[in-house]
Amino acid sequence: MPIELDPIKSAQIRSSFSGIYRLEDLSRFKEVVLDQTGEVTVNLECKLDEQGLTVLLLSADAEVQVTCQRCGGALPQKLNLSSKFTPKLASVDEELIPSEYEIITLNDYGMLELKALVEDELILALPIVPKHDEDDCDISEDDMSFGEVEDEPSKPNPFEALKNLKFQKD
What we know:
7 strands, single chain, two-stranded antiparallel ribbon, five-stranded mixed sheet
């Protein structure tokens, strides 16, 4: 898989790429998963749509392990993502871009950093709070109780004294 590519030229010649990124090479993504020895299968198709917009169809699959936020154990997670992108260009009015396309920014040389895009999409595909199903988790709901919470004693209203002062003046 290329690290960078020119999406406009790639779309004009209808390029497609298939390849693998190793998790150990995805520096930001490997920080949020437990096992860094897996790989991500990536497919990218570049084309022009009916409006003449450059479109990148990205799909990626990975099997990773994340930390269960309930028990702290390993939780296997399958990631299957599929996205449509179009580059942000000065010659294209953003309001005319269909809503199913995500707009991506190219670097100063008009190139797309594909590896960084795949890494971003994988991070976004992870659940915000990964947890085992309650039946599969090592910690049950009973283990999560931390005792009884006592009611706070009622405190006197601080404005009660002001009320009494008002009535004493009359």
